[in-house]
Structures are given as C-alpha cells and as structure tokens.
Amino acid sequence: MARNTHVPADTSAPPVTAILARFVSGHASRGWSDAVEREAHRTFYNWLGCAIGAVYHEAATAALGAVRLLQPPPQATVLGSREKVDMASAALVNGITSHTFDFDDTHLKTIIHPAGPVASAVLALAEHRGASGRAVIDSLVLGIDVACRVGNTMYPDHYDRGWHITGSTGMLGAAAGCARLLGLDEKKTAMALGIAASQPVGFREQFGTMTKPFHPGGAARAGLMSALLASQGFTASERALEAPRGFVQVASDKRAWNEVTDELGERFEISFNTYKPFACGIVIHPSIDACVRLREQGITAEQVERIELRVHSLVLELTGKKEPKDGLQGKFSVYHGCAAGLLFGRAGEEEFSDAVVNDPRVVALRNKVQATVDDSIDEAAVRVAAVLTDGRRVEVCVDHAIGSLENPLTDAQLEAKFASLVVPVIGQGHADEITQHCRALASMPDIRTLTALCAA
Amino acid sequence: MARNTHVPADTSAPPVTAILARFVSGHASRGWSDAVEREAHRTFYNWLGCAIGAVYHEAATAALGAVRLLQPPPQATVLGSREKVDMASAALVNGITSHTFDFDDTHLKTIIHPAGPVASAVLALAEHRGASGRAVIDSLVLGIDVACRVGNTMYPDHYDRGWHITGSTGMLGAAAGCARLLGLDEKKTAMALGIAASQPVGFREQFGTMTKPFHPGGAARAGLMSALLASQGFTASERALEAPRGFVQVASDKRAWNEVTDELGERFEISFNTYKPFACGIVIHPSIDACVRLREQGITAEQVERIELRVHSLVLELTGKKEPKDGLQGKFSVYHGCAAGLLFGRAGEEEFSDAVVNDPRVVALRNKVQATVDDSIDEAAVRVAAVLTDGRRVEVCVDHAIGSLENPLTDAQLEAKFASLVVPVIGQGHADEITQHCRALASMPDIRTLTALCAA
C-alpha cells in the first residue's frame, strides 16, 4: 500500500493530539500572566469591531442569505445586526465578517489571523449557553494557542504549499475553544480535535474572492460542530494530527512537533498577536504610518510638492498600483495609502472606499508620491521624505510600523479603530457601551449582556 | 514568495473548474444511455438502503445528538427515522449513516464511495424543495461524474498521501449535484465548485473511527452549503481547482487534467460504480463468494474437515485476524468471512454482529479455515478447496467476486441486500414500497413521495 514516495512518514511523532487535549481540558482558568490576559481582551475587542464593521458587506449579505435558507432558530447573534441564527451558522457568518476587510489580527510568526475562527466559534456557543466572560476569555486563549502552535509546527511549508493557514489551523483552535467552553474532559477534547483535524478549510488561490473570509468562518463552524459531536460521543482517531496519515503529515512536510510541546502552558501564542491599524496589506503599513507622522508634524497636503518613498522591492511588487480605480485596488496602492495617511491621519476601511479613492484631493496628492526601490531597507520599514513647496525637506524613518509587535497599537488606538468600524453600523452610544464592557469582559457573569449590545 | 520546493506548480492547467461548471449546468437532462440511467437508479437505491440500515448505529445517534443542539427546523428526513432536520444537517447525517457499515458503493478506479456525499446532499435539498425524481437522478449522475473525474485526476497520489478520497472529492460532487438541482447558471455553478474546493474533508488516519463515515457526511454538507452560498452571490476563484495554489495542485502531485475533459458528457463515471455484496473490506469478498458457492453446491458445515484458501499476501495483511473477538474485528478476518459465507450464504451487517462472530458454530467452522499466501493469485481472486470428512475435495476458483465490475450484483441481489438492511428498521411493507418506487424514480413527480416512505 506504500506508494507514497514524496512525503516520508514520521512514525515517531509525539502524541500531540493527546497533549493538546490534556492542556485544553486541564489548564487552570486564567492560568497566565496579566500581559496574556490583557492581550486576550485586546484580541477579542479587535475581532469584535471587525465583525460588526463588515456586517453590511455583500459577502455577509450573501452568506446570511444562504444561512436563512436553513431556517435557523435564533440561538446566536449575527454581530452588528438584529438577526439571530443557529450557533453554527453564527460562527460561520461572524467568522466571515471578521475577516472581510482584511483588517483583523495577525499572529506574525505564522500569519494566522487567529481570532476569526476561534472567537467566532466560542462567542456563538457562549451566547447560546449564557456562558461567562471568564469562560469566553479562557476558551479564546487556549483555542488560539492550539491553532497557532499547530501553525508553528507546519509554517512556512504548509502555507507555501498553498494552504490558507488561518482556515487550515483555525478549525483546531475553534474545536479546542468550544471543547473548553463545553467543559469536555480530556478524552472528549481529543475527539473534538480529531474530528476537526479532518476539516481544514482553505487555499490561497481564493485570495481576492469572498471565499477568503469564508475560510475563518468555515473553520469556526467546523470547530464548533466538532466539539458538539464529541460532546455526544462521536469518535475520531486519537492521533488525528500526528499520525503518518493524519492532518499535519499530509498537509505539511515541516513537522516541528516541539512547537506544540515547548513551554506549553507557560508561553501563550496570543502574546504574539498584533492588530492592523490600516485596512490593507501589511506591507504598506510603514509608508502609511510615516505619512501619518508627517501630518502630526503639521504638514498638510497643500504644502507638499512631492513625497519620496524608499522601500523594499516587495512593497512595489505587491502594492505598486499607481492609479487605483476603486476601493479594492486602493488596498494594493502604496501611493493611495500615503495620500490617505497624510490627508486623514488614518487608513481605515472608509479610506479604502470607492469614493475616497476617487476623491480629487486624494488623487492629486497620490500623484505627488514617488517610490524608489532600495532592498537595503527592510520589508517592514520605510524612508519617507516630504519635499515642500517652500523648499523644506522633512524626513521620517519608520523601522517598526504602528501595529507591529515592536510598536503595538495602544489601547486608545485600538478603541479608535473599533469606533471607526462600529459607529457607522450601530451608533456611537452602543459602540461606547461595548467598549466599556469589553474592558471588563472577564468579570461579565453572562456574555449575553455583550451580545445584546452587538445587535444593532 | 516562492519557497515551495516540493510540488512544482503546473501553470498551464486547463480551466477545469469552468469546464465542469459548463458541463454540470448545461448538459441535457437524461443526456446519457439507458445503461447509465439504470446504474444511476442502482446507485441511488443501494445508497438509500445503506443509509436507512445504519440509522440506529451509535455514530448516527451521536451525530444526530449534535445536530439537535442546533434546534433544526424540519426540512429534510433523517432516512429511516421520523425525524426531520435542516437540509444541511440531513445531508450530514445521511452521509454518515450511508457509510457507517462500509457497505456502500465503490468507484473502483479511485475507491471513491461516490453516492455518500452526492446523494446525501442532493436528496436533502430535493426533499426540501419538492424536486422531481428526474431532477434527483440528473443531479446524481452529474455530481458523481464531477467527484470521480477529479478523483481520477489525482488518484492514486492523493489517496496515498493520506486523503480519504471519498470526502476530499465528494464536496465537489455534492456541490455540483446541488448546483444542478438549484438550476444555477454556469457562472454560479463555477462559484459553487470553487467554494466547495476550499473544503475537502478527511484523512485516512480516521479509518476505524466514526470520523471515517463523517467524511462523506461532511462533504455532503459542505457541497450543499457551497451551492446555497453560490445561489446567493457568494464568490470564489474561477480556478479554484486547477490553479497552482488551488485544491488539486495542493492536494496531489498527480494532476492528470485530461481525466476531467476526456469524453466529458459521453463517458459517465457512474457506469463504473459497484455495490458491495458483503459488509466488509473488499479484499475478503472473493473468499466469501467462494464459500457461498460451496454452500450452493450443497456443502454444509458439518461435512467440512477443513477449508483451504490460497490468496494474495495482501488479503492476510489486511484481513488476517484468526480469532476476532467482536463484529468490528470480524470485518478484518477472512476466516470469519468464509465461515459466514458457508453457514449463512451471506455476509451482511448482521453476520458481522458481535453475536454472530462469537456464535460457537461460527467459531468452530472458522477454526477449520486455513490460508496460504500465493502471490501468483490476483488480489481480487481466490482459490478455495473444501476438504470433506468423507475424503472428497471440492474446489472453487473465483476470479471476479460477486459485486465486481465483471460480475455485478443482479437487481435481485441488490434488492435482497436492500431488504436485509431496511426491513429491520422500517419493516417489510415499507421496504417493498420503497423498492417499487425506486425502480421508477425518474418518473416520480415529487421526491417527497419517496422520503415520506423512508420515515419509519
């Protein structure tokens, strides 16, 4: 039967499915540092803003249209709307909306967007069950740890091969989080992980289509259902992740099992989560950040004769569009990003609307941006000079853009981002209330206090 | 970005996603021979019997328990029960039950069990919509063609790598069948295939657990949802199957694209579908068949001194268990299979129950079976000799076991198999009625006439 010549089987893999199951079911509630606890709150809050913000996007409308055909009972909220659907469908739709703007979180070691699959599954289940905020945070931290550790085990090979790693590890994180929330024992948690291991979602070919954000949504749904199945006695292989014909070995030639086991329960991958300040590909972020800083120095568009960028070649390769025609193209234009940064001091979803991309003031400033390739500059850095009409030259160097691990968003910046996404959907009052509640999420007795506020 | 060294990308793949979408949406209703039409009816009927037969299995109970947590509306029947659930969950559960006994159909070129994912999705959707039998058969033929053609494109590499090919091509077949049933146009059918392409289900490590039959169920569900999403305007890549980072290239090093295009619309893969006569691994079938033939020659267990088998080494490698302790182990014992064949003239699910495996008469006869390896004999053949207490020696050679393409089950045998599965669940009267209706499925105005009969 062994006709498989291309992927040598690793028959000595440690029992990582069982190890993760024991960890998820047995780790103490809030068994981590204050820093981890804070990052969990920030991760949840950032995810929630992204999900609410995209609820009127056509991808959400189409997904919800399909879900309605199932005539779902009102178990869990479609965040940002008054509609409730069954919890599995809520996990799907909220997973889709949270990733629709490409504005969510990033675990930079693996480029997994971890909250999408995990929080979407956990919150839908928690709402239906009336779980506590504490239980939600615990489930989120542990679920994200599972997804990212399995991601570390396979990255970069798994991603390079073509998997969209967010959806192809997210089902494990969602299953782990939901198993924890359900209080499944070690054995049933292993079954939940095992069932989920058969359901990776997503390939990179889908980037640029609605199926990209479907990936975290589908993973959320699959993980939640896997935990429900396990709770009812459904079985799977106890070695579903690590066996020669299990998920990891089939989907990746890199199998660094130690990434699962090293410092398990001591180092938490959510510590390495970051939040996008700008609603576009991460490679433009340093340039936008630099232009925001120019604005903060009092420089206005009217003063500018030209803006000179020196960037790594990758920046122009991925985002070199000189004349974007609409919002989506704007996300692939470093020129547009710079104009938005200087004019508005921000580059949220609104600044990537069709209207803003075609605003004459924006177009005029964009045309004054010139980019030069300099591969001595890091991919994550930029050198920007504003040459002013009075002859002055103002330079800004960004080595670590805002939103990076080295220069994370402050809580205030995260709240501003949240407001920019949420206020247009549910208004300032509700948005402020949600922000208040999210600060103290861990002490909320019943998570439905929060989800009720998220129903516009 | 190109760190992928192990799988050279094929950048010249033909547009198979679009080709299949055009075929599925545009091929004429009943645009095939009488032989294909007959095989479609046999495929459906065999699948239905397997699904009804396993409805009380613990895997079905657990799956249904999880589905009930979603409080589903009564859209489609859990076959063999009075319960209705939402159509996506019905696709899931019926897909699980149809494969639970490992007794369903096999497309021998790829060892795909094609009806599980395709018929489970199509019938659930058809019941909810009150579609005609004609529409069901059309969707089944076209859906199975899509799944098996993509399977041919990747087999054996994809399977050897560790994918359970039934679930990892079945989502495409289910999406195609449901897109056809919904009457989606070419463009939306391509989207349905594209969304489904991100959701392959299943790895071989799960064999021996409930997650094995979950694979066709999960694929059915994923395919049905993909078609519903596409119907609402959800988008995916138009090259989701064939692009370098699309499903086929990521999941298989073999990419024989001509398997999709050759004789498309002329040769139908359902023509190569076969139906298991015995509820166990296909490698034991010739030995059981030979013992059934001995019985038909009047030989009884009491007359037998010993039974000598000569078989290919693979038979003992996979099914060499000398002393099976329960029903499941019995399925991996060629010795038990022979005893059942000679004693009962059959080896359905009942003959692999714990009780029969431990029946003293069966044990006694099993102990008289001796097997010798002879690799000059084909894997699919056997030489059997019964040495009798009176000194006689009766030999039977089986080159093509009953149920193979060369020696297919007759319609009468298929009906006997169906009855053995269905009568214990819903009684003789209902079983007979269903059989009557299935003969004339294509002329049934509303498929709910049939599904109502399948509600025990």
UniProtKB/TrEMBL annotation, chains A, B:
Q: Where's the MmgE/PrpD C-terminal domain?
A: 278-437
Q: Which InterPro entries match?
A: MmgE/PrpD_sf (IPR036148), MmgE/PrpD_sf_1 (IPR042183), MmgE/PrpD_sf_2 (IPR042188), MmgE_PrpD (IPR005656), MmgE_PrpD_C (IPR045337), MmgE_PrpD_N (IPR045336)
Q: Which Pfam families match?
A: MmgE_PrpD_C (PF19305), MmgE_PrpD_N (PF03972)
Domain called MmgE/PrpD N-terminal: residue spans: 20-258
Q: Which domain of life is it from?
A: Bacteria
Q: Which family does it belong to?
A: Belongs to the PrpD family.
Would you tell me the protein name for this molecule?
MmgE/PrpD family protein
